[in-house]
Here is the input.
Amino acid sequence: MAAAPAAEPAKKKEIYTYEAPWEIYGMSWSMRPDHRFRLAIGSFIEEYSNKVQILQLNESTGQFTDTATFDHPYPTTKVMWIPDKVGDRTDLLATTGDYLRLWEVQPGTGNVVMRKLLNNNKNSEFCAPLTAFDWNETDPSIVGTSSIDTTCTIWNVETGQAKTQLIAHDKEVYDIAFACGTEVFASVGADGSVRLFDLRSLEHSTIIYESQPPPEALPLLRLAWNKQDTNYLATFVMDSRSVVILDVRVPSVPVAELLGHESCINAISWAPHSHCHICTAGDDAQALIWDLQALPRAVEDPILAYKAGAEVNQLQWSSAQPDWVAIGFESTMQVLRV
Here is the structure.
């Protein structure tokens, strides 16, 4: 590497750490260019009353400031900022738990106000908890949610109405993710299948992978779509040490299996700016980055490994600042330069 010019400031910090007052589960990077290093985190407290915090890094002090904290019923199963890469939309945050809720961060004050509670089951006092959701990057009026009642629901969050609700799996649905564009999404669940849907023809879905033939199928917990090359998806089995990479053009057989963790995997995130990098994290307190450029040849080892202080429950790669990955373990959030 060439020597840095003499006028260049001291080497930038590689890690920023924030200690929350509770165990962290939900986590999301803001995409807005006017809010660099802003994240939202959700608590995991085993009771009704939980919290969401909005954190902003002060880059000169290297400290995160809690700019807003608000109450949330039950732990958030997922937290996500509106995919607004320009910064010209209302500053919204969505959460799931018992329902899908939309929150607005008000300009100027930074106060957070709930804007919508989306409920498609008006006839019952009971609700089936939502396990996850995805906010469509091409059309941010579209959000898809997954539920333990075997359904996925596609919402228009501007009107607050469900566009469609479908029975997606034979058992609980654990995750949902859109491909690029507004029509195609995939889901995973307790029936051990990855299913592909197209909103233009919902009478059919395609099973592109099964963890085992039924009835021995093992639950698939998470799903991540490679946004730079939407032929590729990643998923993993509950309590498994390996991540399965799928190519939708070659259904049913994984194109790769990433075997680098010593305990079960909890989170996966594709690089938002590269078609061949993915980060995985798990109970072995490791976050590993893999280079899949060699596919279809086997990928033996990660190219980067970071050892955290405890089991890593959450992992998010920033799309606005792709040099940074955030991980959550116990009550600690760490932002790592990669």
